[in-house]
Amino acid sequence: MPVIPYCILLDDCSPNVxxxxxxxxxxxxxxxxxxxxxxxxxxxxxxxxxxLQSAALQFHRVVQTVFEHVAVVPxxxxxxxxxxxxxxxxxxxxxxxxxFLTSHANYVQMEARLASVASGLPTNATTGTAHLRARAAExxxxxxxxxxxxxxxxxxxxxxxxxxxxxxxRVYALVDRRSITGFRERLSKRExxxxxxxxxxxxxxxxxxxxxxxxxxxxxxxxxx
Amino acid sequence: MGRAIEGLNQxxxxxxxxxxxxxxxxxxxxxxxxxxxxxxxxxxxxxxxERQAIRRMEGGSLHDSQIEEMGLALMKLExxxxxxAEHFGLRPEDLNLDLGPLGNLWTDEKK
Lengths: 225, 111
Fold this sequence. Notes:
The complex is a heterodimer of chains A (225) and B (111).
Chain A: E1 3-10, E2 28-32, E3 35-41, H1 52-67, E4 73-74, H2 83-103, E5 107-115, H3 128-153, E6 157-164, E7 168-176, H4 180-188, E8 196-202, H5 216-224
Chain B: H1 2-21, H2 30-59, H3 64-87
């Protein structure tokens, strides 16, 4: 039977795990390579477009309950694996995840979505130059908002990351759990901007480094294949 | 809060549709499936080219005529992609393919 994994955490922590998860399935634990994975055995047909929303909320509740007290690496919903694939994933990623979960044990991520005013819309430009300048101006506007936020919150934030998206720009702040209140207080001093939407705290996954392609261990695995 | 919930609902709807319609090239909608794939890749290239053009424009390495020419080409390409997408019943967000655990086709690298 396929499994739907929720998240990965360090094996030696004592998480608060709900009894049931997606589709009221029993939540199970798998220890491998110093990591603990939480998952449910579930038939794929149990999640349909009709039940997807409630399943996503159940999934989110499990991850958030565990994340309230310990750092986790959450899976994207819905991710389907076989039990051997889950074990293999834990074995392969053990060094990277353990390093991340240890160094970021007390950190969370706050996320801001900066919406582009003309998100996905063509410019009203009548010349090519005006078109490029309009796009550049919008990019600078988002950049300025991001820089203003960074200056305002500098004292509470350990590190920043950014991603351009179809809607505009996403800014991620790495924050110590103990600084969340201070972070929110500082944020509340800023004038409300309908184009900036904050959420969090979330697991600090934007700060999890991507696997290195030149990793000798990976190259060996590839060579063997 | 309302906007946040609306955004979440849209993402869930997008995932829901992705589970059953992601590049669903059956005999009835093969044209739309292929159009979605091809237009997604062209749109990705257009975004990359536009960004490069802006960088070069701001870096001062383009003459005015070159800026106008590149801007015009990119503007027309954007219009054409939009027209073709509409023709095949595709929304702009449909051109950002959901690649499952890898995320979406178009998102910037972490900075």
